[in-house]
Design a protein that fits this description.
CATH superfamily of the largest domain: alpha-1,2-mannosidases domains
Shape: globular
Distance between the termini: 79 Å
Amino acid sequence: MKTRLFFIHLFIIPAVVLIMACDQNNTPDQNAVSLTQYVAPLIGSGGHGHVFVGANVPFGMVQAGPVQYNQGWDWCSGYHYSDSTIIGFAQMHLSGTGIGDLGDILLMPVAGEVRTDREGLCALFTHDKETVRPGYYSVKLEGSGIRAQLTATPRVAFHRYTFPRDSVQKSVVIDLEHGIGWDSPVEGHLEWDGDRTVKGYRVSTGWARHQEVYFTAEFSVPLKGVEMFDGTARFGGDSITALRSYARVLPDLPPDGTVLIKVALSPVSMEKAAENLQAELPGWDFDGVRSDADKAWNRELAKIHYETENESYKRIFYTALYHTMIAPSLFCDHDYPDGFIKYTTFSLWDTYRAAHPLATIIHPEKMEDYAMTMMDIFDKQGKLPVWHLMGNETDCMVGNPGIPVLADLVLKGFVSDPARAYQAMKESALLDERGLEWYKEYGYIPYDKDPAHETVAKTLEYAPADWSVAQVATMLNDSLGEKLFTQRSKAFVHLFDPVTGFMRARSSTGKFREPFSPFRSSHREDDYTEGNAWQYTWLVPHDVPGLIELFGSREAFLTKLDSLFVVEGDLGEDASPDISGLIGQYAHGNEPSHHIAYMYAYAGHPEKTASRVRQILTTLYRDATDGLSGNEDVGQMSAWYILSALGFYQVEPAGGRYVFGSPLMDKAVIQVGEGKTFTIIVHDNSPENYRIKSIRLNGQPYDKFYIDFKDIMAGGILEFRMQI
């Protein structure tokens, strides 16, 4: 056969496409091997969870899964359980974010005519013909009867499409236009080598302002042809003009109607994508790859052996653990050209609070690469990441959340060059951007100086980052740095109003903004970020004693904290939808609240911490598609559950003091690296016995209200005895 080379270069006018998603109950396969049987990936696919639904391996570059037709906020991952449509199967997705992006390189199997306006490419489906397990996704499309199955390696999506025998005009459409959420295509390119391979790239803009994804798609059968079409006409043959963003691939199908497609990705080039394909998936054994993906998930899930007689709690726990390992995701080719494993998708405003502290315990082998990735980002952009996505700094959310993550890694001994990391922290903290210029001048950000609003949230987020820098300065014996950043970390004192007992916006002349309501919230237009004064008054995780002192006494602090969980008020019609999972005004659905229940322990009342933590664990996490009280936020919502179910939580943003709460299990064995295990045994645990009566560490009585990271990582046995 004559080899033909088709070059399709697509220049696409950007257009914002908001894609929405759907919700489903998933009963784990009780016959499945090992711990993946307890993972129900559709938990959080309804409500506002926004979780990824599809096939991937832990921390993989590929997240292969369906993209739905509908548009809206709850479709940020491309899928929502309430929906019944699919426009294609994309190779990359986000999980749990509040902004949509990715959805790159859509494939859609089609039986019948493909109209130039793409009508007919949106298929219906029902959840009773859908299967979702770790590393595997399957669905039968209504109308065409095509069965689509997906699995993956770290950098290769593996598709298997089975067409009914009586279907006609069987084809696979490659769509380089549509993405998810803010994603808008800029440029596309396709090549066909005349045999089985189609390759190309896609450039887009959106949340990630400039994203490049390169791919190689290899088919298991020869291709009879590749048709290109735009909105008015189709073109085929050797001469192709006026091309747009779609290709119709015509596979020469065998009698059983099955075609397999391997789609390898690279952030660098089509050639590297081809190398990734050869390195990771040279063969065609779909079921073998599916089995390997299941094994990969089991290896990671087995880092915590969690025992409880409550099967629902077990499903919630292992699903949460699964959700924490979708990202950070690989952002390098198989040969690691930079000398380390590079990652992306750092949702740091969310994940510095629990997801990263959890990772330091169960993924110690990855921490040096996380640190090197952050330093690489610093070298390229002159500051540590804020919210980094696909090689782009989005500057999403407020504060300097990359600083506490890197500081935590330094303080826990994962960074080979602490001095270099410290320099990166200092330089990031001393920039004149995002309100920092005013923060440095006034000690807080005055509302009349920063036109971008959210000055209370910005100030309160910069302070714990500065505290984290100060801890590293202490470690490195930099007394001047320690003094400077410790002083800056006290910024919260400037915003505390002793009359009302709330953190409030203040002007450059020292006046609090009026009028003031501690309940009202106006999304992105007021002094807080996705919250109100009731929620943000407690955002001092680095200096709880200092916050207690502002209230004048422990009793006053405790009275106010008690009130948080019972008081009710009108948030206003413009309130952020992220203010969810409410217990009084405590909002578990958004991250600034996540440490608050543990603050009681600092005030000498661990029993109150236990009460609220147990309440959150058992009422705001459910074994259902609408099982999360807010966005999953790239693992943070689930990481809170995992740590809290184990019995502790890192409140301070760096350093590794995990405060005790109320363990929700009978026993857990944590693999902490180097062949060591840390075992947690809980005696007399029950819904009534939620308070910790006594603690023993390695057989000895233990009287602290927290446990240190070093004690966890040393291995040993922690025993809780519970009481009413």
